[in-house]
Design goal:
Elements lengths: L28 E2 L18 E8 L9 H15 L3 E6 L5 E9 L1 H11 L5 E6 L29 H5 L8 E6 L16 E2 L4 H4 L24 H10 L16 E6 L8 H11 L16 E4 L9 H12 L3 E5 L19 E6 L15 E6 L11 E6 L8 E6 L2 H18 L6 H12 L23 H8 L20 E3 L3 E9 L15 E7 L4 E8 L2 E2 L1 E7 L10 E3 L6 E5 L5 E9 L1 E2 L2 E14 L5 E10 L2 E9 L4 E6 L2 E7 L3 E6 L6 E8 L9 E4 L1
Parallel strand pairs: 6-8, 6-9, 7-8, 9-10, 10-11, 11-12, 15-17
Antiparallel strand pairs: 1-14, 2-4, 2-5, 3-4, 13-14, 16-25, 17-23, 18-22, 18-25, 19-25, 20-21, 20-23, 24-25, 26-27, 27-30, 28-29, 28-31, 31-32
Helix pairs in contact: 1-2, 5-8, 6-7, 8-10, 9-10
């Protein structure tokens, strides 16, 4: 049986028949009865090095003779308290250098940073020992379809030729972590940020112990969700046991924010800020701030100001925030923190590079990643580290989960690889852009089942391409195209207009993969300043209609301001205080049984026009006597006031035009607006040059 996570999390189970979600029959891989929990010792899990390769920007390497190189590395050595020597120049124009002792991950990162202070240093890499090529020797690696370059995977093997995550830290804000021999060597100190002892279930509130004690509640077994997420990111690799991690030389920083029944938003937001290096009252500062924050969690609500503030703070601290899009098969705009500005929202795909049926979608999704099909066979889902305890902690195992929670750590792991490969740390915005641009596959286009109405980012994240760009080995590809929208005309409506006899049908029965925007009828409404009570409704005729209304952009099933449809032809959307500008209306032909769209439907649009001046235009003429400006506008009350550069000029009778003359000795600009007399009911300002 498939093992799924708890429903409260963004990686919670897709809706499945009860027989498919039973935990008791789950297929798992265990270590066997003699394996002691958490006792495995793994060699080589934390890379160290003495020799490095310093690459220069093209055309500058000839300027780096022995003396200049020695000054470069001498300055870095002084900053780190190390002696560094130059060994030789390579054929590619790079230099091999050696430090006096083995450097650990943190010191390697510091060395790279110091050398990168020279603007001509393009990249610093470890002069690693190469061995005959092969895949990781972890016995379960063959079952990790999600890592490979075919079958819906992220093509991580090519990325490992460039970076393995060395020197990076990924915070996993989740249920905490359990001891696991395929994880322990890559886990550093984190924090338990749960403030409510009842939710925490460990007898106290916040403390430095981020271990997961179980989140079982009212008969539901514990999920060990954080352990599963962490394994995908940084399971110890090439240790001869278990599975491989994407950034297997990165460090996992567990931050426990979810317990029984989930977790309070306040705890999660504190966890986000703390993980990024920000100060949280009453909690010791994080001395090892995360480069990447994985948020395989969330709430079914739009991003609120508090959540946005935490995400913004983390990003300003330099952390890359990666969040699950959610598992409700709806617009990601209803998921927090994925819908917050700056977060990298991740949708889920299956082994055929298709959008998983449970995955949220929409314009705010950045990229997709393997999250599992959510269906049988279990091997079509995501294998990772887990624990077999039903309520409390048991033995370390492996199991398959499915959800956007499982997709998110793929992207977090790739982000860690990118930072590890970069000569200087990339900003969160740069990482987001590289991920998005390299995910689009020009040969395949967007993933299956992803379309104008079911947008799932630019494509499935491609680790090899993303890491190569981050390392400076290949240029950033062009921006991906937009999802194809409607090509049919968009008719303009006015208030009080009624259209009758509207009909449309489906070219094919609409599904997530085939829903065609050209089957819809499209309309635009221009809302003037001061208008109120916008109403759009349909009725009559036969069939089924879905109506979507959106301000400023064409509405999709995942992104709109109002949607209506009850299985018949009567729909209604209302906006009490519409923002001036265009609104778009979409009538979607729906399919069911005998109905294939709609016929003979009526559409009516109305709003209260409070007669504010609008469509203001200004034309200027400069002559010997000064400047003369002619103004024209539409609508407004009987008398209007004219303002120039914010200052009152005069009141005129409203006949839609006025002139203004003033002396000017040189050219310049003047800003005008027209308002109903003695009110703030004004047309948007316009500027004229004279």
């Amino acid at each position: 049986m498939l093992v799924f996570t708890q429903q409260a999390l963004a990686g919670g189970p897709p809706d499945q028949p009860a027989s498919k979600t039973s935990r008791s029959g789950a297929k798992r891989v265990t270590f066997g009865p003699t394996a002691a929990k958490g006792t495995a010792t793994v060699k080589g899990s934390d890379q160290s090095a003495k020799r490095f390769i310093v690459m220069y920007r093209p055309g500058t390497e000839k300027n780096y003779n022995a003396a200049r190189v020695q000054r470069l590395i001498g300055g870095a050595g002084k900053a780190l308290g190390l002696r560094i020597g130059r060994l030789r120049r390579l054929a590619i124009g790079a230099d091999v250098i050696e430090v006096e002792r083995e450097l650990n991950s943190a010191d390697i990162k510091r060395l790279k940073k110091e050398l990168a202070r020279d603007p001509n240093v393009k990249h610093v890499s470890v002069d690693a020992i190469w061995t005959p090529l092969g895949t990781p020797n972890d016995p379960l690696y063959s079952q990790q379809w999600d890592y490979h370059s075919s079958g819906g995977g992220i093509a991580v093997e090519g990325a490992w030729d460039i970076a393995t995550g060395l020197g990076t830290i990924v915070a996993v804000i989740d249920t905490g972590i359990t001891d696991h021999p395929d994880l322990n060597a890559n886990v550093i100190a984190g924090y338990d940020m749960i403030s409510d002892p009842i939710v925490a279930g460990d007898g106290d509130g916040r403390d430095p112990d981020a271990h997961d004690v179980g989140d079982s509640f009212q008969g539901r077994p514990s999920s060990w969700h954080g352990t599963h997420v962490a394994g995908t990111i940084a399971a110890v690799t090439n240790n001869g046991i278990g599975m491989a991690g994407i950034a297997h030389h990165a460090k996992i920083q567990p931050v426990r924010a979810l317990g029984k029944q989930g977790g309070h938003q306040s705890d999660v937001l504190d966890a986000i800020v703390w993980a990024s290096g920000g100060t949280v009252p009453g909690v010791p500062d994080n001395t090892t701030p995360a480069d990447v924050i994985n948020l395989s969690l969330g709430a079914s609500q739009p991003c609120d100001p508090a959540a946005q503030a935490a995400v913004t703070r983390a990003i300003s601290n330099g952390a890359i925030v990666v969040a699950a899009a959610g598992n409700n098969n709806t617009g990601v705009r209803y998921a927090t923190p994925a819908s917050c500005d700056g977060a990298i929202a991740v949708a889920a795909t299956g082994p055929e590079t298709e959008r998983a049926f449970y995955s949220n979608f929409g314009e705010r999704v950045t990229v997709a990643a393997p999250g599992g099909s959510g269906l049988w066979p279990m091997e079509s889902n995501i294998l990772s580290t887990l624990n077999d305890g039903v309520t409390g902690v048991g033995n370390p195992i492996y199991a398959w989960y499915a959800g956007t929670s499982m997709a998110t750590p793929h992207v977090a792991g790739v982000a860690a690889l990118m930072q590890s490969a970069a000569a200087t740390p990339k900003t969160p915005a740069e990482i987001r852009k590289i991920l998005a641009y390299t995910a689009y596959d020009t040969g395949l286009g967007f993933p299956k089942g992803c379309s104008f109405d079911f947008q799932c980012g630019t494509g499935v994240v491609n680790a090899t391409r993303a890491v190569s760009v981050a390392a400076g080995h290949t240029p950033l590809p062009p921006a991906p195209p937009a999802y194809p929208g409607p090509t049919r005309s968009i008719d303009v409506l006015r208030s009080g207009l009624e259209l009758t006899g509207l009909s449309s049908s489906n070219t094919v029965p609409p599904t997530e993969a085939t829903f065609n925007p050209d089957d819809s009828l499209w309309y635009a409404i221009d809302i003037p300043p001061g208008a109120k009570h916008l109403q759009v409704k349909t009725w009559g005729g036969a069939g089924r209609v879905g109506m979507f209304v959106r301000r400023g952009k064409l509405p999709t099933l995942g992104d709109n301001d109002c949607e209506s449809g009850d299985g018949a032809t009567t729909t209604f959307c209302a906006v009490v205080a519409p923002t001036p500008g265009p609104y778009f209306v979409r009538l979607v032909p729906l399919h069911s049984g005998t109905a294939n769209g709609f016929t003979g439907v009526s559409l009516y649009v109305s709003f209260v026009d409070n007669l504010w001046p609008r469509n203001l235009q200004a034309k200027s003429l400069r002559g010997k006597q000064g400047v003369r400006v002619t103004l024209s506008w539409d609508s407004g009350k009987k008398q209007v006031d004219v303002y120039r550069n914010g200052a009152y000029v005069r009141t005129v009778r409203n006949d839609g035009t006025a002139t203004d003359s003033f002396r000017a000795t040189a050219g310049g600009q003047a800003s005008y607006t027209v308002c109903n007399t003695d009110t703030t009911e004004c047309a948007p300002s316009v500027t004229t040059t004279y």
